Amino acid sequence: MAQLLTEAEIQEQAKVLSGWTVEDSKLQISRTFKDFIQAIEFVNKLVEPAESAGHHPDIEISYNKVKITLTTHDAGGLTPADFDLARVIAKIN
What we know:
There is one protein chain. With 93 residues, the chain is α+β, with helices and mostly antiparallel strands. The protein contains three helices and four strands, in the order αββαββα. The chain has helices spanning 7-14, 36-53, 80-90, and strands spanning 21-23, 26-32, 58-62, 65-70. Helix 2 crosses helix 3 (80-90). The longest helix has 18 residues, at 36-53.
């Protein structure tokens, strides 16, 4: 099982992730796109990095808005894997 990060480690890593917030042991970001098609195109770009990492985000789509939530469910909170995937997602347009 993955090692949970301490609160200090979480805050330190969160500082370098623009637009991401930490709430209830979850790392979250919301992105807004021109329309539904662009939102879905963005979500499709998440598949390969998530599969490669073996770590899958929770995704909510509402027309042109996409909310991504990362947490390591089996560990019960945030681990390095969440921040690693967040850094990859942050580079996807």
